[in-house]
């Protein structure tokens, strides 16, 4: 993906946003000097009316949170004892409040902790899992972070 330092990045983003803004305020079919070829890309007014003026999120400074997927890490988590009772084998439980869950996406695999089948099912019967963790006097986020670091850098442990 292009970084913010890529040549022409600012100009192309500004041109794109400007063409979106112009199209939003102009009556259909009207064109003007601000839309000359050198200034901005041609505007698809139909797409804008339909709410489809797309912004390439990969070029934004603050993108959506990254979702790491690692089957290897999930296997590593499942080899660890349950945080509640110490049983093995376990399931890799994704801590649901660790990231915003836009479009019902599962949180990143780095936010997983080991729970046995019983405690995993019990956790998932709760709406908001925070009180469930508080009841067990466990903060799962630093544990998940430590396990992620261990699985990503096995030599460092």
Number of helices: 6
- The termini sit apart by 32 Å
Query: Which class best fits the helix and strand makeup?
Result: mainly alpha
How many beta-strand elements?
Answer: 2
Order of helices and strands: HHHEEHHH
Mean pLDDT: 78
Estimated radius of gyration: 23 Å
Low-confidence stretches: 32-40
Q: How is the largest sheet built, in terms of strand order?
A: 1-2
Percentage beta strand:
5-15%
Helix content: 25-40%
User: How is the main sheet built?
Assistant: 2 strands, antiparallel
Shape: elongated
Describe this structure as you would to a colleague.
The protein is mainly alpha-helical and 157 residues long. Helices cover 36% and strands 5% of the residues. The protein is built from 6 helices and 2 strands, in the order αααββααα.
Gist?
The protein has 157 residues and is mostly helical. It contains six helices and two strands, in the order αααββααα. It has helices at residues 9-25, 45-49, 71-78, 117-124, 130-135, 140-152, and strands at 91-94, 112-115.
Write the layout of secondary structure elements.
Layout lengths: L8 H17 L19 H5 L21 H8 L12 E4 L17 E4 L1 H8 L5 H6 L4 H13 L5
Antiparallel strand pairs: 1-2
Helix pairs in contact: 3-6
